Amino acid sequence: MPSLQPSPGQQTSGLTSAQVQNQIQAGLVNTPPDSPTKSVKKIVLENLFSFFNIIFFIIAGFLIAVGSWGELIFLLVVGANTAIGIIQELHAKKKLDNLSLLSAPKAHVVRDGTVISVYTAELVQDDLVILSAGNQIPADAMVVSGSVQVNESLITGESDEISKGVGSELLSGSFVVSGKCYAVLTKVGADSYASKLTNEAKKSKKSHLPGMMRSLNRLLIGIGILIVPIGGMLFYRQTSLLGLAVKEGVETTAAAVIGMIPEGLYLMVSLALAASVLRLATKNTLVQDLKCTETLARVDVLCVDKTGTITQPEMVYQGIRPLTTQMEEAALEKHLSDFVSNMSPDNETMQALQKDLLSDTARKALQVLGFSSETKYSAVAYSPEECYVLGAPEFILGRDGYAPYRALAEESMADGSRVLLFASCRPGPNGRGIADPVPLAFVLLNNPVRENAKETFAYFHEQGVTVKVISGDNPVTVASAAKEAGIEGADRYIDASTLATYEEIEDACEEYNVFGRVRPNQKKMLIQALQSKKHTVAMTGDGVNDVLALKEADCSVAMASGSDVAAQISDLVLMNSDFSSMPAVVAEGRRVINNIERAASLYLVKNIFSLILAVLSITAVFSYPLTPSQLTLMSLLAIGIPSLILALEPNESLVTGKFLQNAIMRALPVALTDLFIIIFVLLFQQAFQMSNEEISTITALLVTIVGFFMVWKVAKPLNKLHLGMMAGLIAALLLIVLLIPRLFSLSPLSFGGGLVLTVFILLIPSVVWLLTKALEGLDLFLRRISQHRKPIASSAQTQHK
């Protein structure tokens, strides 16, 4: 590939070093509006003064005020959670900042008469930059030499390619499809068009949180609203109506409020996602949008391009097959050499051709038309009477013109070769496009399938993920490569140029697995059509022709070696540009989401029964039976430790359903068991005149043991690690009861208290089983009613029409 040098016709040598320094001092630097990660100060403050930490501090203040120092043990858990959160986020920040630096976009700029490469954030106003195919325009600019085809869809929504010549304005955020130009930056940083759009969007739109985090936010807002009135009413009830001392009232109210707060849940989810990002970073995968970790776990359709994904990114020129007797093969190849020597090496095809055919003695063209994914050809003109075109045979000749040559072309495509048509032509009407093409030769390129492609696609098939190949290449070539790579349904292919409407694309999206001759806008529509069929779609790509589809996909994955714009707009970037990394990436997404979901149900058990118990304590005649330190015992042994262990396990099952709904349905039977057990223990107190301290101890031990049943339930299928964990938790509880009971406000039990405890421990498995079956039956009943109503509603609508 020839080195970049300033154009001979360029009148400027760019800024001098002194001028660059002046611009920097004046603040005219292309600084992005935001850092990719939070600042250290923001991380510390957000973790330390989270909404629920503030509530914990207030509760601690009340407990200190009444002298309940022994109940402050919960602050140790709060402090540990906060410290772990800060350390993990700082560690993640360091790793991601380093990885972001490696993937940060660069630009070629002329300074002091020399072409150098700098990060786009280091560009200054009036810099002279060189833009070519695949580059995202880093700041507003004006073309001073050359011409390019630009796509502004990322900022305007319009996907048409626009020609930009000398004097034309280039908007930051748009990207170059073909051609090459020199441009002077006119507006940089916050003054650029893309930055102003970004700032406006931030004013009108909240940040896009992952679905789990959105669900948790709603849960936390609901709990936050309930805590104050329930806490106030409970304190009043305990002290004024039940006659408890202020100290006891504060302790029981504090316990109820602490029980309602999922203090570790939000942190656990945040840490698990951050840890997932770190693990992906060790696999050379940069996560640019946190929500994609969850989306990956739900992906059931993966759309891939052929080149660079199924096949190696590099192509190899194999030669030509003459289609005319008017010219010798050597003369045809000389014309082809002249053609490729006039083109910019801005795509894999042209780079492969130039590697063998580039010539220093080639004729200079008067006009060059770069390759476009819309037209699927490039062209040169040496004079108005002598023009040549290279590209997709069907697009150059039209369907009827291609028919006589189809069999010969498909004979070469059968082994996966890419077949291009080299033809002479005339300029099209009004100088647009081409006219009257005369076929001269087929140009053959080999694009070998990746060595590990079969294993990679076999993994997705085993995991229930359907692979769709979407390529601009001929469908026969694409299907051949897909079949060699072992992609399921590779024999079901279609030429997308025959799909004229969105409705036709929607009908074809599930019937076919291989789509050839797909235009960039059709790729986007294919993604939309699959999403309309309730699929969660991931898209991989590396070129400018993939950008629209990447932007539309639920999760977009780019190769770092591809175009700048593809990497910058994608959720994930494979830094090693190796598609075989994808199974590990998808497995990580599934692992973290599945484990978060089951661990979340452990937290919700405590929150659900504490909320209902607090409400019952307000309306009934009994005091809240637990203290803050006793709930800390349950949180530590039945929630915190097991959730940490379970969150680290491998789990590659496809994630379905809604996160919070799934977690609540898992937690509800056990939470109701806790409630059932506590109510009956309180009834025993009334019947046998047992002391509050003894009942409180029995209740604390029972809810902890019920928590162990929940751990056993979510840990299925059991393995040696799970059995070891269960044995360790039971041993830890026994040691606490024997050695340090006062630390968790556990008092000695009488013989009668011991019998009550034993009876209810034996009841726990039966109650959990009965409530689980009852809720499963209720859920099934409601589903059947819902399914029965749908046909009736549909029938009614039909009759109405």
Report on this structure.
Helix content is about 55%, strand content about 15%. Strands 8-21-20-19-9-16-18-17 form an eight-stranded mixed sheet, sandwiched between helices. Strands 1, 2, 3, 4, 5, 6 and 7 form a seven-stranded antiparallel sheet that branches.
Q: What is the gist of this entry?
A:
The chain is an alpha/beta fold and 801 residues long. Helix 3 runs antiparallel to helix 8 (246-260) and helix 22 (582-619) runs parallel beside helix 24.
Task: Describe how the helices and strands are arranged.
Layout: H1 17-25, H2 40-48, H3 51-65, H4 74-103, E1 106-111, E2 114-119, E3 128-132, E4 140-151, H5 153-156, E5 161-164, E6 169-170, E7 175-187, H6 193-204, H7 211-241, H8 246-260, H9 265-282, E8 285-287, H10 291-298, E9 301-304, H11 306-310, E10 316-322, H12 329-341, H13 348-357, E11 367-369, E12 377-383, E13 386-391, H14 393-402, H15 406-413, E14 418-427, E15 434-446, H16 453-462, E16 466-470, H17 475-484, E17 493-495, H18 502-508, E18 514-516, H19 520-532, E19 537-541, H20 547-552, E20 555-559, H21 564-569, E21 572-574, H22 582-619, H23 628-646, H24 659-688, H25 692-715, H26 720-739, H27 751-800
Parallel strand pairs: 9-16, 9-19, 16-18, 17-18, 19-20, 20-21
Antiparallel strand pairs: 1-2, 1-3, 3-7, 4-5, 4-6, 4-7, 8-21, 10-15, 11-12, 12-13, 13-14, 14-15
Helix pairs in contact: 2-4, 3-8, 4-9, 7-8, 7-22, 8-22, 8-23, 9-22, 10-22, 12-13, 18-19, 22-23, 22-24, 22-25, 23-25, 23-26, 24-25, 24-27, 25-26, 25-27
